[in-house]
Amino acid sequence: MPREYKWVLLVFFLIVGPGPIVFILNKYTVALLPGISLALYIYLLRNEIRSASFDAVLKNKGFYVWTFRALRAGLIVHLVCAVIFKPLPNLPDTLIQSYVIMPFYTIVVAPIVEEVAYRKIIFGFLSEKYNFWVGASVSSALFSLGHFSPDRLVTYFLVGMLFCHYYKKSGSIGTTIFAHSALNFISLVMLTVKS
C-alpha cells in the first residue's frame, strides 16, 4: 500500500472516521474537522489527483450508467431495510439537525472521504491482496460500523458491498462518490420532510 494511502487512512480514522472525534463532538470539531480532513486528502493525494483525467471520466457514458446503477441499488437496499428494520435516527441524522454546515458535509465531503477510504484504499488493497469478497466484506463492515447505527448495520453493509461491486465494474471511484452523494442528498430530503 502506498505511503500516501496509509496517511489518508490515519487522517480518516482520527479525524472523521469512527475514531476519537466521536468523543469530542462540539460546534468546533463538527464545523472544522471534515473540511480539514478533505484538505489533507487533497494534499496527500495531490500527485494522483494531478495525473487523473477528469475530462475523460466525465465524457465516458459508462461512468453515468454505473453511477445510476449504484444509486438505484443503494436506494433499493435503503428502502427494503427501512421497511424491515424501521431504523431510529442515528448520529449523522442528529448532527444534521443540530449543525447548519452538516448538510454540505453530508452531500459533498462525506462521500469523498468515505469512498476514498473504504472503497479505493481499503477495498482496493484487500481485494488485490486476497480477493473481491474479502476486500468487499472488510471494507463494508468498517463502513457499516463507522456510521454508529445498530439499526442500520445491515443497510450500510449491503450498500458497501454494492458500492465495492460498482467501483470494481466501473473502474472509477467517481462512480461511488456520486452515487453516495446522491443517496445522502435523498436521505437529507427525506429527513427534512419527516421533520
TrEMBL record:
Q: Does the keyword Hydrolase apply?
A: yes
The UniProt keywords, alphabetically, are: Hydrolase, Membrane, Metalloprotease, Protease, Transmembrane, Transmembrane helix
Annotated Pfam families: Rce1-like (PF02517)
State any GO BP term from the record. CAAX-box protein maturation
Decide whether keyword Transferase is in the record: no
A molecular function GO annotation: metallopeptidase activity
- Annotated membrane-spanning segments are 7-25, 31-49, 70-88, 100-118, 130-150, 170-193
Q: Where is the CAAX prenyl protease 2/Lysostaphin resistance protein A-like domain?
A: 98-186
What name is this protein filed under? Answer: CPBP family intramembrane metalloprotease
